Amino acid sequence: MENDIKVETTWQKIKWWLNFITTIIMNSIIIILILVGILLALYLVDLKINDAKGVTKPPLYGAYVIVSPSMEPVIHVQDAIVIHREEEIKIGDVCTYLSKDPRWYGIKITHRIIGTDVDENGKKVYIFKGDANNVQDALPVYENQIFGKVIMRIPKIGFLQYFLSQAYGWIIAIVVPCVGLITFDAIKIVKTSNIKKRIKRGAKDEE
């Protein structure tokens, strides 16, 4: 009987951890889906409003996963950021822009505005630099290249995104905990059945 109690206690601990891990993963997935849903809804509403006005603008909100350490220690690799299109941006803002540097052409870069200037045509441009970089970005950035200002950072969510995008990620995150919980319940049912059988045998022996 004492061994049965120890085994049951061990399985209870395992079940608690499986429940805990599964809950964290599922809550993270739900948060991501809710965030994506909200951003998508705002994007569609803003798109319709701009279409009605005949105006072409970047999306009102956007979300990206950081893959470079250029903004350390403010933003880390695999952090997710949420940006908001601003009517006015200023020096000190961390913004995401579309690079026209031949080395990174077409890549979205998230750096800090460290200054402004004007080009040969008198048009305003912004000077960007990564906090962890020694030099400013090679080319100035025009306003129409800027998608928006960073308004939120979600630490390390990129790791979860990458993990769940792999086939083994879903198996480990969803299937394994579920199988573990089902196995635990099955073992508990068998153990309960065996205990009931022992009680019945004991009662018969006493008769």
Q: Provide the β-strand percentage band.
A: 15-25%
The CATH first-level class of the largest domain comes to Mainly Beta
Q: Nearest-angstrom radius of gyration?
A: 28 Å
Could you tell me the mean pLDDT? 79
Estimated helix fraction: 40-55%
The ordered H/E elements are HEEEEEEEHH
> How many discrete structural domains?
2
Number of helices: 3
Q: CATH homologous superfamily name of the largest domain?
A: Umud Fragment, subunit A
Strand order of the largest sheet: 1-2-7-3-4-5-6
Please describe the biggest sheet, giving its number of strands, its sense, and whether it closes into a barrel: 7 strands, antiparallel
CATH topology of the largest domain: Umud Fragment, subunit A
Structural class: alpha+beta
Low-confidence stretches: none
Q: Any overview of this molecule?
A:
The chain is an alpha+beta fold and 207 residues long. The protein has two domains: 1-56 and 173-199; 58-163, Umud Fragment, subunit A (Ribbon), CATH 2.10.109. 49% of the residues lie in helices and 21% in strands. It has three helices and seven strands. It has helices spanning 2-53, 157-165, 167-206; strands spanning 61-65, 80-84, 94-98, 108-118, 124-129, 141-142, 146-154. It has a seven-stranded antiparallel beta sheet with strand order 1-2-7-3-4-5-6, covered by helices on one side. Strand 4 and strand 5 (124-129) form a beta hairpin. It starts with a helix and ends with a helix.
